[in-house]
Write the structure tokens for this entry.
Amino acid sequence: MRHTIFDTPIVNSCFRFLSHLGLKLFGWKLEGQRPNARKYVIIAAPHTSNWDFILIIACAFCFRINIYWMGKNSLFKGPFGGIMTWLGGIPVDRSKANGLVQQMVDTFHNSTDLAVAIPPEGTRNKVRQWKSGFYHVAHGAEVPIALSFLDYKKKVGGFGPMFFTTGDYASDLKKIQEFYQPMTGKNPEKFA
């Protein structure tokens, strides 16, 4: 994969310091451990606000993780497109099916180290059910899912356990969602 802000010397150190300082100043704490795997899918939930992005990036710096993340392709247009790419962004065209799951599976197979954050809701708006792409990428690439979270009520962000898919999507999804049940998003009414 390409270079990002997370592996840019000096800049990385500066942003790690600023992330620690910013989280502390705003009363946020980190929980859990950096995932003990070279390749994994990160799901970050609840995803209910634009602030989630800033906090996830700060957490990535604090945990020293070089993350890539998937976002809607409109974020990558105009003058900020290059910045979003440098921040680890991977544009996704949500208006059509384009084999993105298989592309990500192939990328995992061709990488030695890779952590990709995929929001299971697929949007900041309330959804009836999570998108299954994160699961199919992890299962197809045979990599674990890192359960990361932001709990605005407790002002805690971090990582829970690693989850290994079994191929039984319905059963696995139920277990994953049970982990997130007690979490409170910035806009709790948007988290189902």
